[in-house]
Design a protein that fits this description.
This protein is an alpha/beta fold. The chain has helices at 3-7, 11-19, 25-43, 51-67, 110-117, 159-166, 183-189, 223-233, 268-271, 278-293, 309-331, 338-348, 352-375, 391-395, 401-415, 417-421, 450-462; strands spanning 46-49, 78-82, 121-126, 172-177, 192-195, 215-220, 263-267, 297-301, 378-382, 425-432, 438-444. It has one domain (3-468): Amidase signature (AS) domain (Amidase signature (AS) enzymes).
């Protein structure tokens, strides 16, 4: 198997190849470092590459294989994390000039520590929109670019995580999802992205955006990888009080059950909404039909408040972010990107009464989502109303009120309902546009029932060929 073919294997397969001594951890790290050197000057997925440290760790991992000792489920598999997660020896910059002089972290974030304990080898830190907010106009570490078309947006805020997974610049990545920041780049880059239930995964050592919405999750090249990675990073962290004490099930064990017997609802307002582009609508409808052919009961469901979710989300998330950044915004406004500064400053002016209205609206949206999930095992919708737009479109000046809704609220109304409800959601590839850009299906599940949405997504993935395509810039 050549280096590029090896690089595109999913993490589960890479770990199996290491365990059976068909490939060495040193070889894997070298393959990915070579690809980063060749491709990342254009794609800008990474903000820091710790090549020497990764090779040292790989040599130790190789020695452990030769010694015949017990190996973790990710032994020898290289990964990278969004520069929102602390990792020993590396600064956490949040993609901002505000933190350009941040000292190296002295301790790993809990999720990073758990991946290393499972045998994973850290390759580096990944690019993101500034402070995970979205709308960045000038990236300090370079403009992230979509590997399917470098003139198009890779999605955010976990931009580098989507790029590095899709372009095989590592075995898998970690991102953080406040209102779609794992699932959106997964969607536009053509990979799998999982937002766990709020409280399922520890956020200790993860720089916050909005404490009531933030959730760390994996991006991977297969659903089975997402299941494996969640089983490793999930679970109680006594140093992070919002994490649940619920036991962590074996998520990989239920994948083979398939879709037969499940009842899934297709959300009318998002799937057949006026904003949903025709190619996206056709791909999601075809995916729902495929699940029906696999034995699921598929029916339409109406959640009439969901088109408002984007505005409600931004009122809450941006307000929480504005409170967090209030001091820096006063003292160092010039260090913020213009797009970030505009959003946070505007959110800081939001009247308290409007914020409380948004909180009440959140409760109503959550109620609609949970009531629908009381009748269905999972909900289906597009992950976004369109495939990845040109980068230039997102950086064009706002010319008036008519620009605000389409630019800020529409896309987030597709991604944020699960965030507002605190439920798990997953993005899985379900097609391509005529111009070759990925389209994704979103699967939303009941709180702490990640196993069912993984089961639905895996059944669909195994019945299609979408994940076998590789980006042109790879």
């Amino acid at each position: 198997m050549g280096g590029d073919d090896l690089a595109f294997q999913d993490a589960t397969e890479l770990a199996a190849l290491v365990r059976t001594r068909q490939v060495s951890p040193v070889e894997l790290v070298s393959v990915y470092l070579d690809r980063i050197a060749r491709l990342d000057g254009r794609l800008r997925a990474y903000v820091a590459v710790c090549g020497d440290a990764a090779l040292d760790a790989a040599r130790k991992a190789e020695a452990a294989v030769v010694a015949g000792g017990a190996l973790g489920p990710l032994h020898g598999v290289p990964f990278a994390v969004k520069d929102q997660f602390d990792a020993v020896g590396l600064p956490t910059t949040m993609g901002s000039r505000v933190l350009r002089d941040a000292p190296p972290a002295s301790e790993d974030a809990t999720v990073v520590a758990r991946l290393r304990a499972a045998g994973g080898l850290l390759l580096g830190k990944l690019n993101l929109t500034e402070f995970a907010l979205g709308g960045t106009r000038e990236f300090p570490f370079g403009q992230p670019r979509n590997p399917w078309n470098p003139d198009h947006d890779p999605g955010g805020s976990s931009s580098g995580s989507g790029i590095a997974t899709a372009a095989a610049l590592c075995g898998f990545t970690l991102g953080e999802d406040t209102g779609g920041s794992v699932r959106s780049p997964a969607s536009w880059c053509g990979v799998v992205g999982l937002r766990p239930t709020w409280g399922r995964v520890s956020r200790r050592g993860v720089f916050p955006l909005a404490w009531s919405l933030d959730a760390a999750g994996p991006l991977s090249r297969s659903v089975r990888d997402a299941a494996l990675l969640l089983s490793i990073i999930a679970g109680r962290d006594d140093r992070e009080p919002t994490t649940s004490r619920r036991p962590v099930p074996g998520y990989t064990g239920g994948l083979a059950a398939g879709a037969a017997g499940l009842r899934v609802g297709v959300v009318r307002e998002l799937t057949a909404g006026a904003e949903t582009q025709a190619e996206v609508l056709a791909a999601v409808e075809a995916a729902a039909a495929r699940l029906g052919a696999l034995g699921a009961t598929v029916e339409e469901v109406s959640l009439p408040l969901l088109p408002l979710a984007g505005a409600v989300f931004m009122a809450l998330a941006d307000s929480e972010g504005a409170g967090l950044h209030a001091r820096w915004l006063r003292e160092r406004p010039g260090d913020y990107d213009a797009g970030t500064r505009r959003r946070l400053a505007a959110a800081g002016l939001l009247p308290a009464g409007l914020y409380h209205q948004a909180q009440r609206a959140r409760v109503l949206i959550r109620r609609q989502v949970l009531e629908a999930l009381g009748r269905h095992d999972a909900l289906l919708a597009p992950m976004a109303h369109t495939a990845a737009p040109p980068i230039a479109a997102g950086q064009a000046p706002i010319t008036g009120k008519a620009d605000v809704g389409p630019r800020f609220f529409t896309r987030r109304s597709y991604a944020s309902p699960a965030s507002l409800a605190g439920t798990p959601a997953l993005s899985v590839p379900c097609g391509f546009t005529a111009s070759g850009l990925p389209i994704a299906l979103q699967v939303i599940g009941r709180p702490f029932d990640e196993g069912t949405i993984l089961r639905v997504a895996h059944a669909y993935e195994q019945a299609t060929e979408w994940r076998r395509r590789r980006p042109p810039v790879s």
